[in-house]
C-alpha cells in the first residue's frame, strides 16, 4: 500500500495538481513559518547572552568591592574587638554597595535561572563570603555559618555549600596574612584565647590549626 505524502509540518499533500500560483504561495508561507521559528531562537539566545553579560559585570563589581573590604580589614591589629570607626564606616559602605548589586541581579536569577546562571555569580559569592567571614572573625573570633551568610543576602540569591566552603578556604589565606603581620608587630597578646579551647591554646594560629582539622574532616 502506497504511503501518504505529507509536508514538513505533517499536513497531507493534495493529490490534485496545483497551479504555479498556489505552489508559490504555499512555499512563501512555509518559509515565513520557518523564519519565525528561527527568529524566536535568535531572540532567546540574545536574551540569554545579555542576561549572562549583566551577571558577569555584577559579579566583577562585587568581587572588586569584596577585595577592597579585605584590604581595609587587614589594617586591623586586634581580634575579638570592635573595629575602629573609620574602618567600620569604610567597610559598611562597601557592604551596602554589594547588597545593592545582588539586588540588581535578582531579575536575572529568578525561577529556573537561579541554577542556570549560578555559575556566573559563584565567584562573586565566594569572594563576598571571604570578606564577610573575615570581618566576622576579626570582630568575634569565630567562623560565620552558612545560615548566617544567607541572612546577609537576598533570599533569591543561591548560596551553595560549595561556595560557602570555597569562601572559607580563601579566608585561611587572609587569616595567615593577618597572623604574620600581627605577630611580627607584636600586637597579638600571649594570653589571647579562643572560647572553647584549653588555656595553652590561644590566638589566631590555633584557630588556623582548628580550621585545617575541620577541613580535613570533610
* CATH-defined architecture: Up-down Bundle
Gyration radius (Cα, Å) is 29 Å
How many β strands by DSSP? Answer: 0
List segments where confidence is low: pLDDT < 50 over at least 5 consecutive residues.
Answer: 188-201
The overall number of domains is 1
> Per the principal axes of the C-alpha atoms, what is the gross shape?
elongated
Q: What is the helix fraction of residues, given as a range?
A: 55-70%
Major sheet description: none
Strand portion, in percent?
A: under 5%
Mean pLDDT across residues: 82
From N to C, what is the helix and strand string?
HHHHHHH
Write down the CATH class. Answer: Mainly Alpha
The name CATH uses for the topology is Methane Monooxygenase Hydroxylase, Chain G, domain 1
Structure overview:
With 218 residues, the chain is mainly α. The chain contains seven helices and no strands. The longest helix has 54 residues, at 20-73. The model is unreliable at 188-201 (pLDDT under 50).
Secondary-structure blueprint of this entry?
Layout: H1 20-73, H2 85-105, H3 113-116, H4 118-140, H5 146-151, H6 161-185, H7 203-216
Summarize the structure.
Belongs to the translin family. Keywords: Cytoplasm, Nucleus. With 218 residues, this protein is mostly helical.
Based on the model shown, name its key terms.
single chain, mainly alpha, Methane Monooxygenase Hydroxylase, Chain G, domain 1, 7 helices
